[in-house]
Amino acid sequence: MEPNVLLRVDGAVEKPLSLSMDDLSRFPGESQVSDVSRFHPGRKGSGVELEALLAVAVPDANANYLTLHAGRDDFHVSIPLAAVRFEGIVVYHIDGKPLGNEQGGPIRFLIRDPAACHTDELDDCANVKYLDRIELTVRKGRDTRPADEAAHSALHEGQS
Ligand SMILES: Nc1nc2c(c(=O)[nH]1)N[C@H]1C(S)=C(S)[C@@H](COP(=O)(O)O)O[C@H]1N2
Ligand SMILES: [Mo]
Asked: Atom 13 in ligand 1: which residue has the minimum CA distance?
């Protein structure tokens, strides 16, 4: 990866993308989402709508799943493309500066209105921190979300 590339969009797409922070900030104003604390109290940052990235990458007609990858801690989430397409936000800056690690940065994925952990495909667990790759696939991809309450508690124990 080039040093300033923070996020790739690849797999079943017409045009794979390698995006730097500058690239993300160049998406049109109407696709930029300022201050996510307006709908996620307690979370910080501003981002760009997932759909704006996908509109440029152009998913193949048979791309049914979108997988969010975080290489940093080997965490992965795979959700139906149709469900997440207009709900996802790629959070990439706070007042023009990259998100810190404690915010899940440099890039963090957020779903506008997530369900409680492991109650739905679009749940809180799918708010992937340290996001570095968005992969489109025909079939469901890798998903390392905790499957039940015990696994979920164990994951959060390890983080705090
Ligand atoms: N990279 C990465 N992203 C992750 C996780 C993780 O372990 N690694 N945990 C997920 C889970 S299970 C939850 S509930 C939320 C918690 O986000 P918060 O710490 O901002 O509340 O982050 C999600 N994103
Ligand atoms: Mo979670």
From this structure: 125
